[in-house]
Amino acid sequence: MFDKYDVIVVGAGHAGCEAAVAAANMGSKVLLATMNMNTIAQMSCNPAMGGVAKGQIVREIDALGGYSGIVSDYSMVQFRMLNMSKGPAMWSPRTQNDRMMFATKWREMLESHPNIDFWQETIPGIIVEDGVCKGIITGLGLKVEARAVILTNGTFLNGIIHIGEKQFGGGRAGEKSAKGITEQLVQLGFEAGRMKTGTPPRIDGRTLDYSKMEVQHGDDKITGFSYTNTTKIERQLPCHITYTSDEVHDLLRTGFDRSPMFNGRIQGIGPRYCPSIEDKINRFADKDKHQLFVEPEGWNTCEIYVNGFSSSLPEEVQYQALRKVPGFEHMKMFRPGYAIEYDFFPPTQLKMNLETKLVKNLFFAGQINGTTGYEEAGCQGLMAGINAHLTIHDKEPFVLSRSEAYIGVLIDDLINKGTEEPYRMFTSRAEYRILLRQDNADIRLTPLVHKLGMQGLEDRMRRVDQKVSSAQEIERYFEEYSTDPNAINPLLESLNSSTVKQRMKAKSLVSRPNVTIQNMREVLPELDNYLNNYDEEIIMSAEIGLKYEGYIRKEQEMADKLDRLEGIRLSDHFDYRSLKSLSFEAREKLDQIRPRTIGQASRISGVSPADISILLVHVGR
Question: Which CATH class is domain 568-618?
Answer without folding.
Answer: mainly alpha
